[in-house]
Amino acid sequence: MSGPDPSEKTSTFLVTHAEDDSAVLQDARDGQVHTLSANPGVEEGDALEATVAPDPPMNLTWSVVEVDDRRSLTTERSEEPPTRRERELAAQQDVGEIVREERAGEGEIHVLTVPPEDTADAVKDVLDDEGTLSRAARLGVSRVEVRADDGVVSVRYMP
C-alpha cells in the first residue's frame, strides 16, 4: 500500500498568469511559484484548491493532479463608505496601521488608516496588489470589496 507521492503538493493556489498552453500558480500559503506544463482550464485570478506534481524527468514544470475546488476571484471598488465599525477601528489606530478583524460569517475585514490625501492611491494599491488576491484565495473567499473615505480604507474579504 503506497501513500501519496511525496513530491506532490496540495495547497491553495492563485493563478497569476494563464495562456492557452500553460499557467503559473502561486501557493497562497508559502508563496512558492509553480509553472504548469499545460493549462488545465484556469484563468488569471482564479483560486484553486489543488494537488500539483513535478513533471519528470527534470521537475522544472508541474502538472495538476487533482482540483478540489476552483473559484474566480474578483476585486472591486465600492462607492459605499466604510461602515461605522470600520471608521471606529480606524479612529483607534495611528496613520499607517492596519487592523484585521473576522467578518460575521466568512472572511475578514482589514482597515487601513492613511493620510487623507493618500486615500485614492491606497485604494489603487490594494486593488492592484497581487497579495490582495492571494489573501482572498488563502481565506477561501471569492470577492474583495474596497471601501474608502478620507483617511480610511476598508478591504472586505467576502464569500
Short description:
By secondary structure, this protein is α+β, with helices and mostly antiparallel strands.
Q: What global shape is seen?
A: elongated
Our count of domains comes out at 2
Strand order of the largest sheet: 3-2-1-4-5
Low-confidence stretches: none
Percent range for helical residues? 10-25%
Radius of gyration, rounded? 18 Å
Query: Would you tell me the structural class of the helices and strands?
Result: alpha+beta
SS field, number of helical segments: 3
Assembly classification: single chain
The beta-strand count equals 10
- Mean pLDDT across residues: 94
Beta content: 35-45%
Separation of the first and last Cα atoms: 39 Å
SSE string, helices as H and strands as E: EEEEEEHEEHHEE
- Biggest β-sheet: count, sense, barrel? 5 strands, antiparallel
